[in-house]
Amino acid sequence: MTGAEQLNSFLVDMFGRINKIEERTMAEGLGSAVSITEIHIIEKIGAQGPVRMSEIAKSIGVTLATLTVACDKLVAKGLVRRVRSLEDRRVVNITLTAKGRAAYEYHKAFHERMIASVLDSLSPEQTAVLAQSLEKLQDFFRQEEAAMEGEEHG
């Protein structure tokens, strides 16, 4: 297997495992199942505070209709609530409930453990090389996203 094939196999396996483990870890921590999309919604709200639904939809790359369905489920699970803006009643913000905030912190701790498990075994030089390599991968994903958005709007 070439280096490129090994890297591809590693990335596909890693992304799948992260999503599966995140879902399982969150379900154990919450006592109920949450999808990877729901986890990412919670993550975005937790990082930003009360936020417009349209902003969350854009930041996670889903339509407002998809986000609305996911938020309906999160509201039913007691993790988020919708709040109309006092300045503009047409604007709906979503915010975390106390249970949602706990889920956010639980998810954040999972990521901190994941990163610590890698960084604890690397030298500062190795950490820098890994970070640079992952930045290049992130740039690729951003370019692919931009190209897909251009196709959708073009």
Short description:
The protein has six helices and three strands. The protein is mainly alpha-helical.
Describe this structure in words.
The protein is mainly alpha-helical and 154 residues long. 74% of the residues lie in helices and 8% in strands. The protein contains six helices and three strands. A three-stranded antiparallel sheet has the order 1-3-2. The longest helix has 30 residues, at 124-153. The radius of gyration is 18 Å and the shape is globular. It starts with a helix and ends with a helix. The model has no long low-confidence stretch (mean pLDDT 87).
Report the end-to-end length measured between terminal Cα atoms: 39 Å
Poorly predicted runs: none
What percentage of residues falls in helices of 4 or more residues?
over 70%
Report strand %.
5-15%
Secondary structure class reads mainly alpha
Pattern of helices and strands:
HHEHHEEHH
Strand segment count? 3
Can you count the helices? 6
Mean pLDDT across all amino acids:
87
As a whole number of angstroms, the C-alpha radius of gyration is 18 Å
Largest sheet: 3 strands, antiparallel
C-alpha geometry: globular
